[in-house]
Description:
Blueprint lengths: L17 H30 L11 H24 L3 H31 L8 H33 L3 H9 L1 H32 L2
Amino acid sequence: MPRTTHIKENRFTKRREPFKFMLGLGILGSVLIFTVLLAVYALRKSAGVYWTDVSLPSLFWVSTAAIVLSSFTLHLSHRAFKTDHFSSFRANLVATLLLGVLFVILQLMGWKQLIDAGVSTVKNPSVGFVYVLSGLHVLHILIGIGALAWLFFKAFQNHSYVDSFVFSVNPPNQLRMRLIVLYWHFVDILWLYLFAFLLYHHGI
């Protein structure tokens, strides 16, 4: 009886899904950028020249709550998508999109709190880092909002149960949903880390 030979596929050379691979590279690139910025922050602070820690805007707490809640609603939306509960899928998707927009608005309002307090970035570079770190993260959120807006359009374009079911079982759509969820959870965790870092150094 002939023996079957099982060849173990090399995990470094196996063919990967290109879009997931590109998203992974993008996430890795973002992590590297923020790591460099935080390292520069630490080095600049250690120099101590013209450096004074200022309290973070109180609205950053509210925006943090909004982004954490948005990850939860997107999780519920994704679960409903996989189990054919399309009304729940759409409702939680809308909630996620609105919370994402709310996060951006609250961040902008938080910047305004700093401006109204007369905090200058010229004489105090620590404030400049708050703007750069939170602003770069807002850019990541806007990319996520764009992806959620596309998903929102598709979800309500396929409003009937049959259309929703056909949309949900389509493999490319399933992949897009997974990638959007992965990206959104990433930017959520990223903000929690940045907020904890800034909170440790600045207080509130």
